[in-house]
Amino acid sequence: MLAWLGAVMIGLSLGLLGSGGSIITVPVLVYLAGEPGKIAIAESLGIVSVIAGVGALNHVRHRHVDWRSVWLAGLPAMLGSYAGAWVSQFISARMQLILFAIVMLIAGWRMYMNAMRTDWRPSYCRPGCLLALGLGVGILSGIVGVGGGFLIVPALILLGGLNMSMAVGSSLMIICLSSAIGFSKQLHLLYASGVHLNWNTFALFVVLGIIGSLAGPPIRSKLPQPQLQKIYAVAVVIMAGLILWKSAVQ
To answer: Is the pLDDT of residue 67 over 70?
Structure first.
């Protein structure tokens, strides 16, 4: 039941914030669903890709996607995700979880600091900024199984000059594309080593996550975003500490 609740929270996070879904996907799969680290990271990319894609379609319908930003950041993110997934085969599952926990700490800090800010001032950057952002996020995504929305959303606001709704919609589309490529490469590597995904768990998380993601936008319109983001950021930091502790005692 806790794993099912976690699956709903993954989608709800993506629907509410446009980020953070994959930050909790791996811990939920590992510690609540009992999946091995390597499999959890691969499943995380696939689950987040599908959930983000469904959420992105809703934003496309409302014209809340900036396609220029999507292609500038999304294409290098796809390339980076493939490269990161290839590199991950040389890293142990324990080290991947440690790296993941470090990313969680950074994500929690960034989310909290973004929630504290009241002076968002868009500054249009050259296309090279978004290209570099996409490549970096993609590499990170492929190695540790995160979508990177916690970096993409504020970057699209500050560097791309987008408002929050456009940034969330564009972020979901970028996450969908880069995570799909990373998932395909991770899946290939797992099958090559004789390991297979638990497709029943995968399907269950996708369905529950989609339900959560569709519930996100209506809830977002009724809740104060800064407070919601602060609470989520603190929870992410606590979860990261638990992962580091469990990885250290293994």
So the answer is: yes
d(CA 68, CA 50): 22
Sequential DSSP letters for the chain: -HHHHHHHHHHHHHHHHSS-HHHHHHHIIIIIS---HHHHHHHHHHHHHHHHHHHHHHHHHTT---HHHHHHHHHHHHHHHHHHHHHHTTS-HHHHHHHHHHHHHHHHHHHHHHHH----------HHHHHHHHHHHHHHHHHH----HHHHHHHHHHTT---HHHHHHHHHHHHHHHHHHHHHHHHHHHHHTT----HHHHHHHHHHHHHHHHHHHHHHTTS-HHHHHHHHHHHHHHHHHHHHHHHHH-
* The pLDDT of residue 19 is above 70: no
Residue 86: predicted pLDDT: 93
Structure tokens at 98: 């440690």
Q: How far is CA 107 from CA 23, 101, 156, 190, 202, in A?
A: 8, 10, 16, 27, 24
| Nearest Cα to Cα of residue 93 among 225, 195, 220, 221 | 195
The pLDDT, as a whole number, for residue 124 is 54
Q: What is the dihedral of CA 194, 2, 48, 65, to 10 degrees?
A: 170
